[in-house]
Amino acid sequence: MSRISGRFQQLKSENRTALIPFVTAGDPAPGVTVPLMHAMVEAGASIIELGVPFSDPMADGPVIQKANERALIHKVSLRDVLAMVKEFRSQDQETPVILMGYLNPIEVVGYQVFAEAAAEAGVDGLITVDIPPEEAEEFCRILGKHDIDPVFLVAPTSTPERIKRICDAAGGFVYSVSFKGITGAAKLDVDAVATKLEEIRQHTDLPVGVGFGIKDPATAQAVGRVADAVIVGSALVNRVEAFADQPDAIAPAVAELLAAMRSAMDEN
Amino acid sequence: MPTEEQIDFNSVPDERGHFGPYGGLFVAETLMEPLDELRQAYEKYMQDETFLAELDADLAHYVGRPSPIYHAERLSRELGGAQIYLKREDLNHTGAHKVNNTIGQALLAKRMGKTRIIAETGAGQHGVATATVAARLGLECVVYMGAVDIARQEANVYRMRLLGAEVVGVESGSKTLKDALNEAMRDWVTNVDNTFYIIGTVAGPHPYPAMVRDFQAVIGREAREQIQQQAGAMPDALVACVGGGSNAIGLFYPFLNDSDVAIYGVEAAGDGLETGNHAAPLCAGRPGVLHGNRTYLMEDQDGQIIETHSVSAGLDYPGVGPEHAWLKDVGRAQYVAVTDQEALAAFHTLTRTEGIIPALESSHALAYAAKLAPTMNKDQIVLVNLSGRGDKDMHTVAALDGIEL
Q1: Residue A52 in contact with residue A103, Cβ under 8 Å?
Q2: pLDDT for A115-133, tens place per residue?
Q3: ipTM of the prediction
Q4: Cβ contact (<8 Å) for A180 and B301?
Q5: CB contact under 8 A, A180 and B289
Q6: B317-329 per-position pLDDT tens digit
Q7: Mutate which of B29, B183, B189 to disrupt the A interface (most A C-beta within 10 Å)?
Q8: Which distant-in-sequence residues (6+ apart) come within 8 Å of B359 by Cβ?
Q9: Radius of gyration of chain B (CA)
Q10: Contact B172/B179 with Cβ under 8 angstroms?
């Protein structure tokens, strides 16, 4: 069983929802990331989602765009991100780590070389924003050989036919995007989210996480009532940005918000 | 890979937008369904007599088609080789080939019931062509433009605003065309219900590369007839500049199965390919994935997209249409590059010998024609796509000559 499936099973037995924080690797500087990952685990992260910096993050809003730009000032590459995961793994073999990014940095390395290196570093799953299942057949086959779960997104615009195709290709969990738009926008409609989750669950037994628009303990709690996982990104990255000049203050600031979300979700 | 002779060049792309290994659909999930709706509408209306008649009428009476081809006799004599013919896309309404595509996509938007148009623009030519058709059809129009480009293309920004478009400055990334495209994609993903995204070149996710090609192919269809009527022969070579590559594919496409016609696409070598300061992904880049398709890109060793340089803002793009990538690999077209200096020299030469001021983009095609023609006989024909007029470049050229207007 993959680390991701194991984590979801464990949470289910405890009747709890997974909390998945996202930060961009190397933001605002490479040295910040690994201690931040450990701090997030301590604050209640079930799985960690690590953004791979890309020059053209088309699906991201201004907050995460700027995080990418800050990391790229330090030329943080995919290989650097894998090195961070490896460093994290030297102290934490339990918490699943998912990389989130765009296809081009992976294409440059090559699918096979990437999958081997990612597995070796201890990566458990991969969200590649700009590769739909239609284009991902070979990619998924190679990831599968190295036990890396391909996590795919379902959008509000996805038809039943597409949802089925996505669920058939997905591993680990399915990521439901809560609204039409980019990361960091705020117009979450929990009823619409719940309806979508029901639709998705008709096609898969995988856990279903919800991301986009979860910004505080209240929204995390509301989504946590209906989803198997709550994914929070821009709200945390905002805190990274606020303390970009004081790297020591970043981990406590991010952990504070995350812990508040965790305890709000545990009240469910 | 099949040899060039076995390929039917009218058979691409496949149903999911692939030109060999290039093209395809590489977008976030939210856009997959809207892109499929667009593909269905495009396939339906390209077979619809009423739609095509409306498009033809607009191209005739609003754009001013057919654009003529012109035998540049003095230029040909000066170059001392093949006869140069110019396809005069500079004479279109709004001054470039861009409007052929925006007219088509705007009519499609109207048929699909969309009330809001968005576009990206670099030099501003596609933005102006989009704002123009949006004004005519009474559609809301938002144009995304990099902050750097806004500063260097003030006149076009003002033109778009006169036409009623909202011009939004893009401050992310390198603040140029690629970032404007990112921002337009972000708008589209947010407002997909009522919004039609008019992409200005033969890049982007399927069906854009095929759809924009089909709207621009009017250039080559006309030219193929005109050259046979006027010169009594098929051309020996076609030359067009390639940024994203829409004017080039528009000229090339109807000639692809004419295997005796040599085809040259001319990229921007900027300060020179060896300096790294250029915009020539086909000549000096490698395949990757950006803006919804797989194609040749300018990128660093980590797969980050790098900044491009060209004196011509319309060629200043790190990617290129996937059909060009494929035509390069199968050997049907050759891709070459000319420097800023060579393009500027060609700009001045055409202006002085023929009384035609070309756009700096088109000057790249002219510069390569000036290298090619002298290697050919006087009874041979080189057909150059004069994709736009140079009025918009007065400030750029004057500044390079040390003159402030």
Answers
A1: no
A2: 999 999 999 999 999 999 9
A3: 0.95
A4: no
A5: no
A6: 999 999 999 999 9
A7: B29
A8: B90, B95, B96, B125, B312, B314, B387, B388, B389, B390, B392, B393
A9: 19
A10: yes
